[in-house]
Amino acid sequence: MAGLVALCLLTAATMFLGYANKLRCTGPEFNEWGRSEPAYQERSYGEVCYSDIQNLWIGRDIDRHTFPYVHGGIDEDGSLYGGVVEYPVLSGLVIWLGALFVETDAGFLAASALLMAPFGLAVAWWLGRLSGWRALLWALGPPLVLYAFHNWDLPAVACSVAAVFVVHRWTSVPLRRRALLGAVLLGVGFAFKIYPGLFVIPLALHVLTSGSRRFDVKGALQVVGVAAVTVLVANLPFALAGFRGWLASFQFQSDRRIDLSTNSIWYWGFRAYTGSDEFQAVMGVVSPVLMLLSFALACRLGWRRYVRTGRYPWIQVSAAMLCGFLLLHKVHSPQYTLWLLPFFVLVSVRWEWIAAYLLADAAMGISIFRWLYLSMEGEPSGIHDGFTAQALMIGVWGRAALLVGLFAAFLAARSPVDDDERAEVRELRTA
Fold first, then answer.
1. Which of 258, 331, 304 is nearest to 408 (CA)?
2. pLDDT score at 425
3. Which residues, at least 6 apart from 390, have a Cβ–Cβ distance to it below 8 Å?
4. % of residues, the chain, pLDDT over 90
5. What stretch or stretches form a coiled coil here (predicted)?
6. Which secondary-structure segment (H or E) carries 431?
7. What pLDDT is attached to residue 428?
8. More reliable by pLDDT, 48 or 210
9. How much is the average pLDDT of 353-378?
10. CA torsion sign, 106 to 111 to 115 to 120?
């Protein structure tokens, strides 16, 4: 217990450093819209203290305390209006709550941090219970400083880790029931940030293959069904209250063009073509198709491991699927590293992989804003003009190469909960 408390205190200290970093961009003055002055944009890029939370205070009617989705929509040029934000409904609700009693972007950042910090602490507690000292990777990880309050990702991360926790630590409850609760949590996570929904299929395959003599088809279908119903329940009130605004958030992401703001390999690899409508149309098909193929490959390789070992490695498959998503999706925002960080705790990949990825991510996460600052100021920012652009390319392409390697490394690695899983399978097969 003392170790878990210490872990949470370390996590709180790390998140405080993350908040303090973002706080440098706020104030000391504010204009009539509550935007920090002076030179907000230049400071946020040049001093590497930018956050989507502070930035989106203006432009989504957040500063007007408009309840999300109900009254808004999307214009022909792709602009959102009337309280619509480009995130799923539960994130929209958190955003609205964070803005409810504040009048400046600084207040919004502070309130949002207070709302999300408990989720970061819960992740630390659950990871500590699941993996012991490896949870220090979360508590002391540089991504928690860089991104804890960059966007609204901590609730979704908490849902993913909570799903693993209930499946592998509530052993007094039958596996199918634990998996159904895990499916609910993943469905809730989908309603925060989509990506936890990826893990429903590996969880269903885990349930499918955990029967004593035959496949548990009913249990697997229930896992998928419960997750789908959870997503429906979370979204239905918003869809009924304002269908156009609710749909606009999904349409925004579907129609989003590959540009500098997406920060993916598709932008950095094909910058010369991103202004072409034909390129955008092609990538609108290529990117999701490649993602689906990577998901199918991860599930297939997980099945091969099940045939060899008698256990479907759903945590490892989930981690590999996330690698495919991060690599191949047309958007790769810096804070997505928070999604991957718990899997470094839950799957025992070699430390060299972890250190290399965190270094590449830090290189990208810091240099991208310095590079934007140089570009904004009209300073030389080419690859031959200084270390900023070089570090950015090291980060972008180093991270991409490491995601390919981690896809395979996750699938080949064991999990710290493996011993418990083997005992669980033996128990099921002797029941």
1. 304
2. 39
3. 383
4. 84
5. none
6. none
7. 33
8. 48
9. 94
10. positive
